[in-house]
Specification:
Blueprint (H helix, E strand, L loop, with lengths): L2 H4 L3 E6 L4 H4 L9 H12 L1 E10 L6 H10 L3 E6 L1 E5 L4 E4 L6 E4 L4 E5 L3 H10 L6 E5 L6 H9 L3 E6 L6 H7 L3 E3 L4 H4 L2
Length: about 190
Amino acid sequence: MKLEDEKISAIAFIDAANIIYGAKKEPGFKVYLKKLAKYLRTRFGVRRAYFYGGVNTKKINFEKYQKMLEQFGLIPRLKKTKFYSQEPRPKVFTCRFCGKKNILKERKKIRAKANCDVELTIDALKNLRRLKEFIFLTGDGDFAPLLRLVKEAKREICVIASSRKTAREIREIAAERFIEIKNLKKIIAK
């Protein structure tokens, strides 16, 4: 299918773990996905916006969440969150008064994981020849090789992320097409 057939010139890739949950750390800033989808459509002409994220099915109904994203105009690429326990490393310290070595033991930490980076990369590569502009909503440095590849293919890229949470490499690749997410607060915040 050719670009003209679908009348799509731009596509967005939203890394939920990096953007949506990362924006929560900004004071008083929670991204409203419906507003984000509208912004991407009006500002960039995005007709497809993929949303990559994990769903904690202990707290959220997977199917309802997926339907909500679709109603907002996003294409869900979701995974069920997996939980694992991480054994902490014992911390050894020496008492400065008596010279005795002490071991401080911490409790196990429960970590959540739902990596979607590979799926995002595959979707971007599938569309590389068809589209002229790629909007990446991530600051994850793991995506630097993908962004370089897209640029080498003479495609335009734009990165929307928090500068505090964005890898230096990503900012350099995006250069003047880097948009600070907190500057969009009035447009996309709840």
